[in-house]
């Protein structure tokens, strides 16, 4: 089924409002996921604070989606971004692709 999201949590947090769910998920895909998929240039520039801010902004949103595995991965990297980001970047990127696929599939399922 889904690798990274929990549909029951999405329905619960957004009170079964399919229009709201659709809008929120589109924003998450367009903003949050794209932001995190494009962190390597920031890392290369030494912008550790910017990476930390993007992680901090995104974790609650992912929580509403039930994407706890990604949040745990982000928290692991956050513990030492300068040293851990290059080690775990590929894994994070893969999990983001899975999340994006899950959300796209979920949107198709609820599209009315």
Pick out its properties.
112 residues, mainly alpha, elongated
Description:
The chain is elongated and about 40 Å long. The chain has 112 residues and is mainly α. The chain is built from six helices and no strands.
SS element count, helices: 6
Class by helix and strand content?
mainly alpha
Low-confidence stretches: none
Please write the string of helix (H) and strand (E) elements.
HHHHHH
Mean pLDDT over all positions: 96
* End-to-end distance: 20 Å
Q: Could you estimate the helical fraction of the residues in percent?
A: over 70%
The fraction of residues assigned to DSSP E strands is: under 5%
Shape: elongated
Tell me the number of strands.
0
Radius of gyration: 14 Å
Please give the largest β-sheet: none
SSE topology:
Elements: H1 7-13, H2 18-37, H3 40-44, H4 48-65, H5 68-78, H6 81-110
Helix pairs in contact: 2-4, 2-6, 4-5, 5-6
How would you summarize this macromolecular structure in one to three sentences?
By secondary structure, this protein is mainly α. It has helices at 7-13, 18-37, 40-44, 48-65, 68-78, 81-110. 21% of the residues are buried.
């Amino acid at each position: 089924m889904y690798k990274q999201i929990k549909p029951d949590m999405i329905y619960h947090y957004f009170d079964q409002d399919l229009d709201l769910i659709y809008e929120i998920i589109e924003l998450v895909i367009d903003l949050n996921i794209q932001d995190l998929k494009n962190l390597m240039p920031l890392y290369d520039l030494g912008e550790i604070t910017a990476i930390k801010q993007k992680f901090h902004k995104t974790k609650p949103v992912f929580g509403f989606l039930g994407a706890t595995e990604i949040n745990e991965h982000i928290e692991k990297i956050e513990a030492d971004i300068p040293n851990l980001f290059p080690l775990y970047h590929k894994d994070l990127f893969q999990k983001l692709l899975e999340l994006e696929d899950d959300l796209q599939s979920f949107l198709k399922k609820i599209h009315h």
